[in-house]
Amino acid sequence: MTEMSNRDGAQNVTNDSKDQMVKGSAWMTAGSIFSRILGAIYIIPWGIWFGSYFFQGNALYGKGYNIYSFFLIAAIAGIPSAIAKQVAHYNAINEYGVGFRLYKHGFVLAALTGIVCAGILFFGAPLFDGGDARVIPVLHSLAWAVLIIPVMSLSRGFFQGYQQMAPSAISQFVEQLARVLYMLGSAFIIMRVLHGSWITAVSQSTFAACIGAIAGILTLVWYYLKNRSTFDALVAGSDNQIVVPAKQLYQEILQQALPFIVLGAGITIFQLIDQYTFFNFMKGTGITSMRTLNDLFAMFSVNANKLIMITVSLSSALAITAVPLLSEAYTRGDKRDISQQLTNAMLLFEFVMIPSALGMAAIAHPLNILFYGTSHKDLATAVLAFSSFVSIMLGLFSVTSAIMQGVSQNKRAVRYFAVGTIVKLALQWPCIHYMGVFGPLVATTIGFIVANYLILRWLNQAFGVDFQGIAKKTNGILGFSIAMCIIANLVVEVSSSLFGHFMAVDSRMGSLLIVVLAVGIAGYLYVYMVLHTRLADTVIGERTARLRRLLRIK
User: Fold this and answer.
1) Which pLDDT value is given to residue 396?
2) Which InterPro entries does the annotation name (predicted)?
C-alpha cells in the first residue's frame, strides 16, 4: 500500500512538473514570439524609409548589436537565471525570506555590473569598432541600455523563481513595443522629415533599446505592487530555519552566474567570430568592395538572423522555463523527475522548432522579399533557407545548456561549449574560402552539433534520457513537418503562378499574400495532423482536447 502511495505521489509530482513546464512555456513562448515578431516586422517600414541605405544601415545596426549583446550578457552576468534558480531552490524548502534577501543582494550586483559594462562599452567603443568608425556612435547609444537592462532582467528572474512567467513575458512584450515605436518614429523623422544622416538614424534606432528597457521596468514594478501582499504572506510563512550570511549569498549568486555569461552569450560569441573574421577572410577570395561585403554580411548575420531568431526564441522560452523546475527536482534528488523533465523539454522543443524551421525554409523566397525587398533576392533567399535549418542547432543549444544549468553542471556545459567554439574557429577560414557567404553558417552548425552532442551524451549517462521514447515521437513530428513543408512550398509555387496574372508577386504586397496563404494552409495541416493522431497529447498533455473540440477535429 505504501509502495503504491509513493508511486502515485511520484507520478503526481511528475504530472505537476509537466503541467508547470507547459504553462510556463506557454507564457514565455507567447512573450518571446510576439516580441520577436515585433522585432522583425519593424524592418519593413524601417527599410523603406532608409531607401538605398537599407542594407548598409542594417549591416551597421547588426555590427553594433552583436557587440552590445555580448556586453549586455556580461553586464547581466547570468544573474537573473541564477536568481531564478536559487529563489526556486529556497522556495522549494519554504525559505521565501532567504529568496527575497537573495534578490536584494542580486539587485546591487546587477546595478554595479551594469555601470561597469556600460562604462567600458561607451568609453572603449573605438577599441571594438573593427576598423569601421561608424560603429562608435552606435555603441555609445547602446551603452545606456546596458546601464538599465541588468536590473530589469534580474527582476524577471525573481518572478520566474516563483514560476510566475506572465510578468516576464508581458514586460518583454511592452519593452519591445516601446523600442519599436521609438525606432520607427526616430527613423521616419531623421530620414524622411529632416533628410538627415543614415548613421544618425541607426544610432537613434539602437538607442531605442534604452527606451524599451525603461518601459519593461515600469511593467515589472506594476506587477510587483499588484502582488505585494501575496509575496509578504509567503515570506511571513517561511520556516526561517536557515540563516545565510550576506557574503554567502553573494558567493552563491556569482558561482551560479559566471558560467551563465559564456552559455548565455553562446550564439552571440559565434556571431562575433563571424563579424571579426568574415570581412578579412572574404577579401582573400577576391571580393574587396566594402559595400558588397557589408551587403553579404547583412544577408546572413543580420537579415536572416533576425527572422530565424523568431523560431529560436521559442526554444529559448522553453529553456528559461526548465531551469527553476529542474533546480527543484535536483534539490529533491529526484532523478526520475529530472529524467521526465528532460524528455518533456526535448519534445516540446522539437514540437515547435522543427516545423517552424522547415516551414520558414519553404517560404524563404516571399518571406525575404516581404522583409528585405528584391535586392540580391536569389542569394538572400538561399541564405535565409539555409539559415532556417541552422536555427535548429541554435535552438537545441539554448535548451541543452539551460538544462545543464538547471542540474548544476555549469562548468561542464562551458567546457563542452568551448570545444564547439574551437571547432567553429578551426572551420571558419576553410568554410568561408570555399563556400563564401554560406561558410560562417556551416561552421556555426558543426560547432553547435559538437557542443549539443557532448551535452546530451553526458545527460544520458547521468540521468538516463529516454531516447527511444523521444525517437518515436520525433519521427512523427519530423514526418508531419516534412509534409507541411512540401505543402507550403506547393502553395508558394501555385499562388505565385496564379497571382502573377494580375499583380507583381515579387512586391511586398504580393509576398505578404503568399506568406499568409502558405502559413495558414500548411500551419493548419500540421496542427490537424498532430491533433488527429493524438501526437500532440503525448507532448503537451490533455489541453489538446479543448483545442480539438474548438477546431472540430476528431
Assistant:
1) 92
2) PG_synth_SpoVB, Poly_Biosynth_Transport, Polysacc_synth
Q: Which secondary-structure segment (H or E) carries 246?
A: helix 246-264
Name the maximum alpha-carbon separation found in the chain: 80
Q: Rounded distance, CA 306 to CA 299, Å?
A: 10
Residue 533: how many other CB atoms lie within 10 Å: 13
Distance of CA 263 to the CA centre of its chain: 13
The whole-angstrom distance between residue 427's C-alpha and the CA centroid of its chain comes to: 25
C-beta separation of 151 from 106 below 8 A: no
Rounded to whole angstroms, the Cα distance separating 268 from 264 reads 8
Residue 371 CA from chain centroid, whole number = 20
Give the Cα separation of 118 and 114 in Å (integer): 6
Q: Whole-angstrom Cα distance, residue 150 to residue 144? A: 11
For the chain, the domains span 42-264, 269-554
Residue 101 amino acid letter:
R
The per-residue pLDDT for range 252-272, each reduced to its tens digit, is 666 666 666 777 778 889 999
Q: How far apart are CA 350 and CA 476, in angstroms?
A: 11
Listed in sequence order, the residues at least 6 apart from 242 whose beta carbon sits closer than 8 Å to its beta carbon are 90, 93, 95, 98
| Per-residue pLDDT at 391 | 94
- The answer to whether the CB of 545 falls within 8 A of the CB of 536 is no
The pLDDT of 102-118, averaged and rounded, is 85
Residue 461 has pLDDT above 70, yes or no: yes
Residue 310 pLDDT: 81
How many secondary structure helices (H) and strands (E) does the chain include? Answer: 22, 0
DSSP string, 273-310: HHHHHHHHHHHTTT---HHHHHHHHIIIIIIHHHHHHH
| HEC assignment per residue over 376-445 | CHHHHHHHHHHHHHHHHHHHHHHHHHHHHHHCCCHHHHHHHHHHHHHHHHHHHHHHHHHHHHHHHHHHHH
Return the pLDDT at 345: 81
Kindly provide the residue ranges of all beta strands, DSSP E only, lying in 116-274, ordered along the sequence. Answer: none
pTM of the model: 0.78
Distance CA 71, CA 69 (A): 6
The three cell numbers of residue 222 are 506594476
* The three grid cell numbers given for residue 146, joined into one nine-digit string: 546596458
